[in-house]
Design brief:
With 147 residues, the chain is of the alpha+beta class. The chain has five helices and five strands; from the N terminus they run αβαββαβααβ. A hairpin with a 2-residue loop joins β2 and β3. The longest helix is centred in the N-terminal third of the chain and has 16 residues. The protein is globular.
Length: 147
């Protein structure tokens, strides 16, 4: 079974809801380190902020890694989860000026009993776990509402 068919099968029966909090992850084509480029990373962050301004999603935390994005967000009531992520990927690619994303994304609905600040800390500590920096604050492409 190819990965796209597998992802569709996993999503069958699931219905993203506005107000639900998700952690989303998506990767660049062939894991190319697109976001090693400071301006490209800031472009993607600008697109995330646009989604909040448009009330498609409220960003709780994110980290833009060299070859992927982790985004902790609360889905707004104006667009579906897949549309929101498609907007992020399409707009960032258009603004950067080339195709950059692999097809699909991974989503995990956060349960009420999960501790959001802990989930956010996990998201923004990705650069430390990847060995890119010693402390989260040394990495330039992250944010969280709790900081």
């Amino acid at each position: 079974m190819n990965s796209q068919a597998h992802a569709q099968r996993l999503r069958s029966g699931r219905h993203p809801q506005s107000g639900q909090i998700y952690i989303l992850s998506t990767v660049t084509q062939n894991r190319a380190p697109v976001f090693d480029d400071f301006l490209d990373a800031r472009t993607l962050i600008g697109v995330l902020r646009d989604q909040q301004r448009l009330e498609h999603a409220k960003t709780l935390a994110f980290v833009v890694m060299p070859d992927h994005l982790h985004w902790l967000m609360e889905l707004g009531d104006k667009v579906a989860l897949s549309v929101c992520m498609r907007n992020v990927k399409t707009l960032s690619a258009l603004r950067i000026g080339r195709p950059i994303w692999q097809t699909g994304f991974h989503d995990h609905a956060i349960r009420q009993e999960e501790d959001l600040p802990s989930v956010a800390r996990y998201v923004v500590s990705n650069p430390v776990r990847a060995g890119l920096v010693v402390r989260t604050g040394q990495y330039p492409h992250w944010d969280a509402i709790w900081v």
